[in-house]
Amino acid sequence: MTKARKLRPAEPWVGILLVWIATSPWLFLSTCRKDATLEETQRQEATAQVEAYKSRIVLSEIGLAKGENYLGQIVYYVEGSAKNEGERVVQRIDLTFLFKDSLNQVVLKETRKAVDYKNKKGLESRKAINFQVGFDRLPRDWDHRIPEIQVANVIFK
Question: What is the pTM of this model?
Answer without folding.
Answer: 0.74
